[in-house]
Design a protein that fits this description.
The chain is of the alpha/beta class and 477 residues long. Helix content is 33%, strand content 25%. Helix 4 packs across helix 5. It is globular.
């Protein structure tokens, strides 16, 4: 199927990006041939689920596809077919003509360098600014994205997922490239920060810039407006003005995708927590301190088996650090945490916000799961049915974490946790890497398993609608 979005405009102005019959292939076609134009001053958004080929399409346009994948067709930028250029010529355009904001901040940041120099070096080496001015511009960039001053001097591992995403965004923008491709730019951000990033993107477009956005976030596509293409499994499903597609989708898949937005979830009756459910964990007067910064004070909580408690709050307010404190990974600055006696420590678990940080990148998933099975003397036969329930293809077991999407890694995190029969899970943005359809299924599955197995669940999310649909009660930090 060849998709074409080239006839939508009466405006005859030349597109900044002209794509013709672009496809991506390995052993077979992963992305079917597509044709579209991206014009200055009009946001262009590719919307779709994880694994639909959205990111591969953007990497093909940039000219940095992973090894083993090939692109065919034409991608014209300023009239030049970049697919026909040698690699060095394509790389010379990066940061100057076009820039890419990647999906996973942890794969884009240098773990040994603090935030400020990572943004400053783009100003210095791409724009050619002096060292002092580069640092000053970088500091302004980080402040404009709402990062506190102290974040500039922190390593990526010391930042929350939302903060790390904003550092990458600042670095990608610092070169001043007129064409910007952003891949899931609002992952891990609360609603207010998401709106800030969208506003920044829109300002760049209004100034005549070119914006191609890859997202599964319906709210982002709606706020950006402009033109939307909906992809599924490497094929175009639907295209048109954003307002039209999102309000009145024609394709069955687009309707399913929009219906899966938490704002549109049907209201369902939640079974009450059993009256005799034992207390699993209690926090009394807890203070959370990390890096000398007081994040939470006077925190009290009692959670019972099978209870689901939502935790909300802005990026950087201490949600992840609170989870570390409740699990004993971080010592409380004051107060105390009591966990139910007689239970093995590994049954109190955390689902990490950024799954790439939770898996070794040097071993395939099969080896990592086998290690857990061997260490805790589990039944390996439990893995296949859990993989099926979590919609994980068996062949993913042979790949390492770098060869798996963020959404698939997050589902492996859930699988690994469920293998250990947890009694308490601190789920830190467990659906932040999932498209709406998979998110709805996985969140429902987490809630269902929590109640079935009488496992207490603290569910951290920036999405108030999601929390209100799933949780028995909510705590705001």
């Amino acid at each position: 199927m060849t998709a074409s979005a080239t006839q939508r405009r009466a405006d005859p102005a030349s597109p900044a990006i002209r794509v013709r019959d672009l496809s991506v292939a390995a052993a077979g076609e992963i992305v079917r041939p597509m044709s579209f134009d991206v014009h200055p001053g009009e946001p262009f958004t590719i919307l779709g689920s994880s694994g639909s080929g959205k990111s591969l399409l953007s990497q093909a346009i940039m000219g940095n596809l992973p090894e083993g994948l090939t692109a065919s067709g034409r991608v014209e930028i300023d009239g030049v077919d970049v697919l026909a250029l040698p690699r060095k010529a394509r790389e010379a355009m990066w940061g100057r003509t076009l820039s890419l904001l990647p999906q996973e901040p942890w794969h884009a940041l240098d773990p040994t360098m603090t935030a400020l120099p990572q943004v400053a070096e783009t100003h210095r080496h791409v724009r050619g600014l002096a060292e002092a001015e580069s640092a000053s511009r970088a500091r302004d960039d980080l402040a404009a994205l709402g990062l506190p001053p102290e974040a500039a001097d922190k390593l990526p591992m010391q930042l929350s997922g939302g903060m790390a995403q904003r550092v990458v965004f600042a670095a990608a923008q610092a070169g001043g490239a007129p064409i910007v491709i952003v891949d899931e730019p609002t992952k891990g951000l609360d609603a207010s920060r998401r709106d800030d990033v969208v506003a920044l993107l829109k300002r760049a477009v209004e100034a005549g810039g070119v914006l191609l956005t890859i997202t599964h976030d319906i709210a982002v596509a709606r706020q950006l407006g402009g033109y939307v293409m909906v992809m599924r499994a490497g094929e175009l499903q639907e295209e048109g003005p954003a307002a039209t597609v999102l309000a009145n989708p024609r394709s069955a898949y687009a309707r399913q995708l929009i219906a899966a937005d938490p704002e549109n979830w049907p209201v369902a009756a939640r079974p009450p927590v059993a009256a005799d459910a034992p207390e699993v964990l209690r926090a009394e007067g807890v203070a959370v301190i990390r890096g000398g910064r007081h994040l939470v004070t006077g925190f009290d909580l009692a959670v019972r088996a099978g209870e689901i408690v939502g935790v909300t709050g802005d990026s950087g307010c201490g949600k992840s650090s609170l989870g570390d404190t409740l699990l004993g990974l971080l010592k409380p600055g004051a107060g105390r945490v009591t966990r139910a006696p007689g239970l093995a420590p590994h049954r109190f678990l955390k689902l990490y916000q950024d799954p790439p940080t939770a898996f070794s990148r040097h071993w395939p998933m099969r080896v990592l799961l086998d290690d857990v099975v061997r260490l805790h003397r589990l039944d390996p036969g439990r893995i296949p049915p859990l993989m099926e329930r979590l919609r994980l293809a068996p062949e993913l077991l042979e790949r390492d974490s770098r060869s798996i999407s963020g959404g698939e890694l997050q589902r492996f995190s859930i699988l690994r946790a469920l293998l250990l029969d947890p009694v308490f899970i601190f789920a830190d943005e467990p659906s932040s890497r999932l498209d709406p359809i998979i998110q709805q299924e996985i969140v429902a599955l987490l809630a269902e398993m929590a109640r079935e197995r009488r496992c207490a669940l603290l569910l951290v999310s920036h999405d108030m609608a999601l929390v209100d649909h799933v949780c028995d009660r909510r705590i705001a930090l």
